[in-house]
Amino acid sequence: MKAIQMSSFGEPEVLKLVEVEEPVPTENEIRVRLYYAGVNPVETYIRAGDYAFFNPDLPYIPGFDGAGVVDAVGPGVTRLKTGDRVFVASSLAKRKTGTYAEKVVCDVTAVHKLPGSISFEQGAALGIPVTAAYRALFHRGRLKPGETVLIHGASGGVGTLALQLAKYAGAQAIGTAGTEESMELVRKFGADAVLNHNQTGYLNEIPSITNSAGVDVVIEMLANVNLEEDLKLLNKFGRVVVVGNRGSLDFNPRLTMAKEADIFGMAVWNAPLDEYNESLVAVEAVLNNGGLQPLVGTKLPLEKAAKAHSQILSSKAKGKMILEIVKS
Ligand code: NAP
After folding, report:
1. How far apart are CA 173 and CA 154, in angstroms?
2. Does 75 share its domain with 204?
3. Counting atoms of ligand 1 from 1, which one is nearest the CA of 269?
4. pLDDT at 2 over 70
5. Is 128 in the pocket of ligand 1 (CB under 6 A)?
6. Domain that holds residue 47
7. Quick check: is 91 in a domain?
8. Is residue 72 part of a domain?
9. Residue 173 above 90 pLDDT?
């Protein structure tokens, strides 16, 4: 089968299109014929070779996320059968052969049904972004129905899904984005209020939006820029969940005291397996009930994986970047 493989760590050019043997599923594993793979910022960190959570043995086929149809099942698999439409979220699977490939083998727990209303392209946009969104909102942020959440960076892969999950759970959601176009998108996905994080003073509107109460939870995509301001926006006992961060900042810890605010780190890799599996079962249910429409942004052919890696950290996000493996 065709796959993108890297034999050394380094710049995007280490990603090469090669022919490799098809992986074979063993007990409680499943093989999926992939139509699309999701591209996540984390895969660029892993490719560069200095990612704190994960340094794979080489050669390595990247990719945790994708969508397609079940192609083969190993002994013990009863929940899914050959031909089922599925999405793959294999970041925490014990075995994961990489989704930048025509086929992937992984634990059956990492594979879930995709309803007919969700395309394979959209299915590839779930995986890491949706498990990150779910974990940030509910396992770390403990968001409750009726509370207000600020999704600071709501136009990207994680943000658009977090926004929809928060609304589905009965929260009030404020989203930020960096351009008029992406603000429109955030509005379309159900935000009660939308702010532009590139405009000076954009957070001044939060007191009037929240009737002076402040927000209960912030889901933060760029903590090194926003963390100090986030703490000023919180309601009493508010929580900030750090999902994304690209540097450090000078910050006054006193801001946590008056409100007894909590700052939570979140990394999908740390999820206990029961919480991870719970998030995927919940996502499958929300998909079935029409509560989630993953947004696909840039689509590139599999062989352009290196270009995808060059673009993903620099381009303005308008949904999830995916690789096309086979036209569905
Ligand atoms: P993405 O699709 O590239 O989206 C990036 C988001 O950040 C966009 O909504 C972007 O908005 C927004 N942004 C840009 N400048 C901002 C600012 N000053 N303040 C707030 N938001 C700003 O990336 P993603 O897949 O959603 O991931 C987002 C971040 O979370 C990345 O850093 C990623 O590495 C991280 N992440 C962490 C985990 C984890 O386990 N902790 C899991 C998944 C992702 P505009 O483009 O509209 O300006």
Report:
1. 10
2. no
3. 40
4. yes
5. yes
6. 2-126+294-324
7. yes
8. yes
9. yes
Both tokens assigned to 133: 């969104």
> Amino acid identity, residue 42?
V
Q: Has residue 283 been placed in a domain?
A: no
What pLDDT is recorded for position 78? 97
Quote the pLDDT of residue 315: 62
Atom of ligand 1 nearest to the CA of 152: 20
Q: What percent of the chain has pLDDT over 70?
A: 98
Q: Report the nearest-CA residue for atom 12 of ligand 1.
A: 153
**Any idea which residue has 């074979």 for tokens?**
24
Identify whether residues 245 and 298 lie together within a single domain.
Answer: no
CATH number at residue 96: 3.90.180.10
Structure tokens at 254: 């006193």
Kindly give the pairing relationship between strand 148-152 and strand 215-220.
parallel
Domain identity same for 134 and 122: no
Instruction: Tell me the CA–centroid distance for residue 47 and ligand 1, in Å.
Output: 19
The pLDDT, as a whole number, for residue 326 is 82
Pick the atom of ligand 1 nearest to 177's CA: 47
Confidence band (pLDDT; 50, 70, 90) for 136? very high
Does ligand 1 have an atom closer than 6 angstroms to the CB of 125?
no
Average pLDDT over residues 225-237: 98
Residue 318 pLDDT? 72
What does pLDDT average to over the chain? 96
Residue nearest to atom 5 of ligand 1 (CA): 156
Residue 219 has pLDDT above 60, yes or no: yes
In the predicted structure, residue 282 carries a pLDDT above the cut 70: yes
> Is 257 in the same domain as 299?
no
Same domain, 237 and 209: yes
Query: Ligand 1 centroid to 223 CA: how many Å?
Result: 10
Asked whether the whole model's pTM tops 0.90, one would answer yes
With respect to residue 289, please indicate whether it lies within any of the assigned structural domains: no
CB 165 within 8 A of CB 145: no
User: Is residue 327 predicted with pLDDT exceeding 90?
Assistant: no
Task: Please tell me if the CB atom of residue 190 comes closer than 6 angstroms to any atom of ligand 1.
Answer: no
Q: Answer whether 66's CB lies under 8 Å from 126's CB.
A: no
Contact predicate 258/231, CB 8 Å:
no
Give the full edge-to-edge strand order of the sheet including 148-152.
193-196, 172-177, 148-152, 215-220, 234-242, 262-265
Counting the structural domains of the chain, the total is: 2
List the residue whose alpha carbon is closest to atom 22 of ligand 1.
Answer: 153
One domain for residues 119 and 134: no
Do both 14 and 75 map to the same domain?
A: yes
